[in-house]
Design goal:
By secondary structure, the protein is mainly α. Helix content is 70%, strand content 0%.
């Protein structure tokens, strides 16, 4: 079961990024999208959450987030 649980460090990083994104940081939203896209915040990628965060960041000018959205198509 250990492999399926998110580590506390990763969880704290995600929470910190969500807090920053909530305060308007496009870079944080992009990092969240990338983390979900690559599976950094769990035991596997989460395309739905990656798309949500990438859409927000891309809408605000993030080219990397747009690349993630293109890869999810």
């Amino acid at each position: 079961m250990k492999g399926k649980m998110i580590s506390m460090d990763k969880k704290q990083r995600l929470l910190d990024l969500i807090d920053k994104a909530g305060r308007g940081s496009i870079e944080a939203a992009e990092a969240i999208a990338e983390g979900y896209f690559k599976g950094t915040f769990g035991d596997r990628p989460n395309p739905e959450k990656a798309k949500k965060w990438a859409s927000y960041a891309a809408k605000h000018g993030s080219e990397n987030a747009q690349k993630i959205l293109n890869a999810l198509k």
